[in-house]
Design goal:
Blueprint (H helix, E strand, L loop, with lengths): L4 E6 L5 H10 L6 E8 L5 H9 L3 E3 L8 H14 L4 E4 L8 H6 L4 E5 L11 H8 L3 E8 L9 E8 L6 H24 L3 E4 L2 E4 L3
The protein binds 5-O-phosphono-beta-D-ribofuranosylamine.
5-O-phosphono-beta-D-ribofuranosylamine (GRF) binds next to α1, β5 and α6.
């Protein structure tokens, strides 16, 4: 299929979400293809998955917070160079500068391991456990200029079970992520999701 929507996946870690996206994209009829995988961490699991899948993997090294604009512009340049129409953050541990939102308006997705707006930030699972919530979950949202803040596209609850640790809860959350993210990307790539301010509408829903 040649008319699939090219996407860039940005990842810093093991890349299990990336793996789920690659698996979905390998299926006939999936409307998106992974055009490039971009990471700030040479040798990370996500880049190893890129190599195994035969997808271009590119490193954009983190130059320090004072260079966030240039770093972000370089990420966008790499995504553009591979024709990416959507940027998908999958465990990307750097905060993008506003230039990314200007260049990919409403075209950047992120997945977060909690029910936003509860527990934003890099320690969402631990924070939810420490707070004693009985339900946490998964959020997929459009990226805006604030961290873990943009319009919410999809959420699914995951119960917190007695005796849960950060590891056991995160594992159940990730199992949900691995179904949710490919599904949301599918809908996005088909144009079935519209974003108007904070309001996200699923066409036909
Ligand atoms: C996921 O839990 C995601 O919600 C968060 O970072 C984690 C990335 O995991 N943003 P992986 O690298 O996809 O395994």
């Amino acid at each position: 299929m040649t008319d699939r929507i090219p996407i860039a996946v940005l990842a810093s870690g093991s890349g299990t979400n990336l793996g789920a996206i690659l698996e979905a994209a390998s299926q006939p009829g999936y409307p998106a293809r992974v055009a490039v995988i971009i990471s700030d961490r040479p040798g990370c699991g996500a880049l190893q998955r890129a190599e195994a899948a035969g997808v271009p993997g590119r490193v954009v090294s983190w130059p320090g917070a004072s260079e966030r604009d240039a770093f972000t512009a370089e990420l966008c340049d790499v995504a553009d160079a591979h024709g990416a129409e959507i940027m998908v953050l999958a465990g990307f541990m750097r905060i993008l500068a506003p230039v990314a939102i200007r260049r990919f308006p409403n075209r950047i997705l992120n997945i977060h391991p909690a029910l936003l707006p509860a527990f934003p930030g890099a320690h969402a699972v631990a924070d939810a456990l420490a707070h004693g919530v009985k339900v946490s979950g998964v959020t997929v949202h459009v990226v805006d200029e604030e961290v873990d803040h943009g319009p919410i596209v999809f959420q699914e609850a995951v119960p917190v079970l007695p005796g849960d640790t950060e590891e056991t809860l995160h594992a159940r959350i990730q199992a949900v992520e691995h179904t949710a993210y490919p599904m949301v990307i599918d809908a996005f790539a088909r144009g079935l999701v519209t974003v108007d301010g904070r309001i996200v509408t699923w066409v036909g829903a």
